[in-house]
Amino acid sequence: MKVLSVASEMFPMLKTGGLADVAGALPGALAPLGVQVRTLLPGHPKVLAALDAGAKVVAEWPLWFGGPARLLAGAAAGLDLLVLDAPHLHDRAGNPYLDANGRDWPDNAQRYAALAHAAARIGWGELKTWKPDVLHVHDWQGALVPAYLHYLGNGGNGGKKQPATVLTIHNLAFQGQFNAAVWPQLGLPDEAFSMHGLEYFGDVGFLKAGIQFADAITTVSPTYAHEIRTHRDGMGMDAMLRWRQAAVSGIVNGIDTEVWNPATDALLPARYGAQDLAPRLANKREIEKRFGLTADDSSPLICMISRLTEQKGIDLVAQHIDAIVATGARLAILGSGDAGLEAALRAGAQTHPQRVALRIGYDEPLSHLLQGGSDAILVPSRFEPCGLTQLYGLRYGCVPIVARVGGLADTVIDANDAALKAGVGTGIQFADVTAEGLLEALRRAVQLFRHQPADWLRIQRNGMAADVGWRSSAAEYAALYARLVAKESHK
């Protein structure tokens, strides 16, 4: 089976968040199941620089959303890629979505419409030597693909069968909603700008289009698939998602267990396995040194690796640093985001310089060190489609302390009394995403760490034994693709 994955970023070439990790890991996980994945990416400078010397031009479009474009076929980091090389759209350094001032690029609608239109043309067979059976598109940046196929496909592909389409929603908060003024530039018929098409409260809704027209809609955890169909968490899309609920399912993300392996991770000063966790102490000492924290083996070192936003519950942490320190915990925080939250965390670190430390920015090597040496990782999100940092924590024996939402609820087993007696707990959950709920979870963690070391060790080892890789989830995607292709063949 042939699948074209359509993504705006992909690890290791270009990454701003978890989408890149998923796009980078899923092709390798699907290959043993007989699924050949090629990934279509925008021609960001980092992507073009990563392509091997054998990359070839397989299509050229003289005028493409304001300028010329080429479609390149090649490989990078062992991944099979198609790259839309349109310099007028994507030859921009830094963040792929934001300018140097942190504002959305004003032509984002055209940039990702071009990516989606290129995917649709590949889908209806313009590459003579390769035609996908399934187009798997990710988030709003790829969500116009099913709409282009719906409105333009029959004419564009000479009446041939359409490929099946899967839309994966990684985070419903990002919907790709644009002013109606962009409509004439998208290359869609006027009839498509209606409530039954792309019109969304007078604007153009990219994600809405994908929800409307994709054959299947997945989210990145079963609990999140349920949450987004509720008024509370549906972010204005819940009615549509309930209307399409027969097509909606949740498949939890996995992680690349070769990249994230504490026994072989070259980014750790000391490597280790579940049977001998003693080397983690050397990693902990390195964290304390780099972050300027006082060594204290009676106090758990808790890391946070996150976008610093209210969605991630960072305001709860920033506003209650004194109370968090009073629980006996220490904090090492890595991330960036809201300027006000950054300032509040910085102030907390200045107040408690030996107990709280902050590093602003994205640092992949440092994130490995934090997982490999911290005692626990805190993820207090108000909503979390899947989350990856808690999966890395499980893999590294860094005990997750998580809000009971979305994928966090699906991947961490709360170490309550019953779970401890059964020997199955893998972390600590809290359902009340408030300051008191957060502080009580931290008190539980400190109690376990200080006074129940055997239970703490069991929780670590349980987490390290958890299935956090892609094997099970890849099998679910492969089965979904097979069902869709079989359905298309009977039309």
From TrEMBL:
PANTHER family: ALPHA AMYLASE DOMAIN-CONTAINING PROTEIN, GRANULE-BOUND STARCH SYNTHASE 1, CHLOROPLASTIC/AMYLOPLASTIC. Keywords: Glycogen biosynthesis, Glycosyltransferase, Transferase. ADP-alpha-D-glucose binds at K15. GO terms for molecular function: alpha-1,4-glucan glucosyltransferase (ADP-glucose donor) activity. Its EC number is 2.4.1.21. Synthesizes alpha-1,4-glucan chains using ADP-glucose. Pathway: Glycan biosynthesis; glycogen biosynthesis. Belongs to the glycosyltransferase 1 family. Bacterial/plant glycogen synthase subfamily. HAMAP family: Glycogen_synth. Residues 2-242 form the Starch synthase catalytic domain. It is an enzyme of class 2 (transferase). This is Glycogen synthase. It holds the Pfam family Glycos_transf_1. It catalyses: [(1->4)-alpha-D-glucosyl](n) + ADP-alpha-D-glucose = [(1->4)-alpha-D-glucosyl](n+1) + ADP + H(+). Residues 288-445 form the Glycosyl transferase family domain. The gene is glgA. InterPro entries: Glyco_trans_1, GS/SS, Starch_synth_cat_dom.
